[in-house]
User: Fold AAA ATPase-like protein from Mycolicibacterium moriokaense.
Amino acid sequence: MAGVETQAEHKQVTVLFADVQRSMDLAAALGPERLSEVMGELFNRCGSVTQRYGGMVQQFTGDGIMALFGAPIALEDHAIRACVAALEIQKEAVTLADEVKRRDGMDIALRVGLNSGDVVFGQIGSSTASYTAFGTHVGMAQRMESVAPPGGVMISESTARLVEHIAVLDDPSLVNIKNAPGPVSARRLRGMLANRAVVGRRESTLFGRDDDIEAVTRIVNETIGGNGRVVGLIGPAGIGKSRFCRELVKIAQSSGMATFSTSCESHTSEVPFGVVSRLLRDVLRISDDEREAGRAALRTRFGDADPEDVVLLEDLLGIRDAAVASPNVSAEARRRRLAGLIGTPAMSPDQSTVYIVEDVHWIDAASEAMLADLLTDVPLSQAMVMITYRPEYAGVLSRRSDIRRITLAPLDNSAAWEMTTELIGSHPSVNELAANIIEHSAGNPFYVQEIVREFAERKVIVGDRGAYRRQLEIADISVPATLQATISARIDRLTPAAKRALHAAAIIGSRFGVDLLGAVIGDADDFGQSELAELVHSELIDQVMFTPRAEYAFRHPLVRTVAYESQLKTARAQRHRRLAAALEHHHATAADDIAAVIAGHLEAAGDMRDAFGWHMRAGNWFTNRDIGAARKSWRRAKELADELSAADPDPRWMRIAPRALLCGSTWRAGGSVADTGFDELRALCTRAEDQVPLAMGMAGFISQLAVTARIREASRLASEYVELIDSIDQPGLTVGMLYPAIHAKYEAGEMADVERLAQRVIDLAQGDPTKGNFLTGSPLAFATGMLASARCALGQGEWKGTFKQALDISRVDPTTYVSIVMFKYLLGIPCGALLPDAMAQQESAEALHIAERCSEDFALHTAQLTRGIVLLSADGGDRAVGLELLKRARSAAIGERFMLAKVPAIDVQIAAEMARVGDLDEAIDLSRHVIAEQFKSGAALDRGTATSILVESLLDRGRAVDVDEARSAVDMLAAATNPGFVLCELPLLRMRALLASAQGEKERCRTFTDRYLAMAQTVGFEGHLATARAMSR
Assistant:
């Protein structure tokens, strides 16, 4: 036991119990002295066999033994060794029984039972004799022994699964054992088949990839020639993706190309831009120790770029000056602007370049989206981008139409033989071992390396690489189903200090630095470079960075997994807790950006309350950077709060707070009304008598109803919502939270309510554009814009001036400005209030530019919609561009489900364009659909325009039934229009004039035309005025 780590840990073991049958009868017949001799000899032989096959006799039970295979030192083939040992023990027992029979005339028989599985193994107290194993698998082995026949070996189903490919077993049988609820399956072990190998690991030359190397070499040459390529390298774990990438680096560098690389990690898959940040730090040579120099280098390199974009890049790279505020832009805008900056000539290297991103199946969503943007320009560059991923990855990077896919298949027998013989050699004594390696590695290069290394470490083979000779005969052993025990065996050969360092590193992640490693270990005096040197020498980790700080990485992800999962939860929790504290200390001035990581470690430590707080903090930090990531943090906080409430129902606020944020933000992230969770939030807030979070959640719920085109429901709930806001009676809250109600009433066409509520916000804001800006950038601007819209819809004066005021106020926030421009022209142009004049062109173009640079996707799509309507409505050559923008906005609305209320406005414009080019049938069908949906949902804004297109198209088509349908459509609109709602009253006058003309009623047509012109002049609707004047000529 010398040198063995004393801390308890999980072990994959096989437990063996052997018991002498009818031991009491034997004792009575032989007497105590002779019995002692016989039992001592039996136990000596059993112990010798156990030790021969790597096991440890843990207990003598008086008439039997308990032995472990796989503890304290892990064995990759513990089940096979235990089976071989059990059979050998029975042989020894038979030999001894013959001797006892001849001398004493007594029969002796052993029963042996085996069971395999996870146990906790460690030292109890201070005595080395106090090592023991705990767990249900220990008891099950004893139960197997109790049902074994005399002279036989009975194994459990778990052991049988590990050895059935090499063992001779009886068919399963059901046996009754103590304390089991029913019969369990067991199998009798009869013997073992041919010898099998044990696992080791050593990297070798690349074999069996000639075709793949030829393909990637062609791609390298194409890239050098100016035809950039995106390559996907696909294969399961251990197949050699990383090894292939190292070969690519050699090829590229030998051709004069620059190479940069990074890898994705599972534990950072929810940290936005983490992968892109690491890759860019490599490309730009950014160091944490030289932050100011890094910023200066960026300013020099991007001297012609927008300074805000450079600050965004500094923020991404983690070197932004704390005194410089990060630009207030959404995650989507941040991604677009960074992608645009990185795509500028300033980032273009002086030589052809290979970029490698490994394991994108673990990539964070923001990096994935940004890489997807960047890859668009690769075909026109001298860059090759290699991404590697497992077959189960189906993200956007793998679905690119221009990606060149290289799938790494398992090595065929010829390549596997070449690889194995290069590692183990060609001496005749190792030929059988080589054959076993090839058979059981199944073409996986990593498995081959592991097997050879394990043989060398266990002295089964001796010599040097490529020149081994077989030294030890090994019994019927083989590679287990997984590599867990194999890697554990390598770990257990480390010194205790090195093993502790490896366990601590596994807590940090696949890549780690020395400073954090020391913090996790918890005792700096008990940790030094010698432990890291031992781990590197053992090829469990590699040093991947030397300056300015040394960094290390696990050689293979499975090494980290085994090192992590072998630790007891209590030990892991303590280390996670230390790591969380260290991260908070090291990032004391900028902990928000790693709040999600700290929260994850606190969760793993079992500190759920603290984890809750950090998840909430992470969500707040993500809110204006990545709403999806923010919602993930809030969702996890909600789950933790629910878990905590099961034990302590008191902190009800913990359950309410994340739910309010989730409900309040659903409309920004897409999804359905059910995704808001409003009903549950409402019930919790009612029980807690807490109205503020209820108001926040109800605001989001109303917005979700509105953007998903459930206008009637949104308007009805908005009335209740206003009463709730009034009952809270906080002016600042009223200013900030009335907007959802105003917007719902606006979409429903209830303009009197819009005017009243908007004026209330304006009065309470007292000219402060940012007062109450926790839902919108400027509640005052939104309220002023809504007031202008209501005045326009009701034909009141000064609505144009009110829109101007709203636009001036909205300049305080980019997204607010984009929204006000949308309200102005999405209402004004289709409804005939405004013309697509020079001001409309200028303001819609500016809004689209701002949205592309600063706003969330929601605002970007509304800006596309606004710009598309302006271009499509104007005479000129940009109609096709306008139509394309409308189609993009429509596709986003349908696909992302957060702008469905604007689909009718888009469809109205598309129908109008169809009518303009003479496709009357399609225009009629589409406008019919829009009208039906408007009446179904309760939306009112597009009814007049849609009905106008339908009626005019029907009259132009001129079928006998078309006039009747047109008249019915006019009557339906008239019946649903309230007096004073000029958005419908004006088109009704025009349509009645057109109907009268179609029926030859000239005087009636003139009457309606005159009334139409007079109303258009009174309300100042430019579009209708131009149309009315043309009709009057």
Q: What stands out?
A: The first strand starts at residue 9 and ends at 20. The radius of gyration is 38 Å.
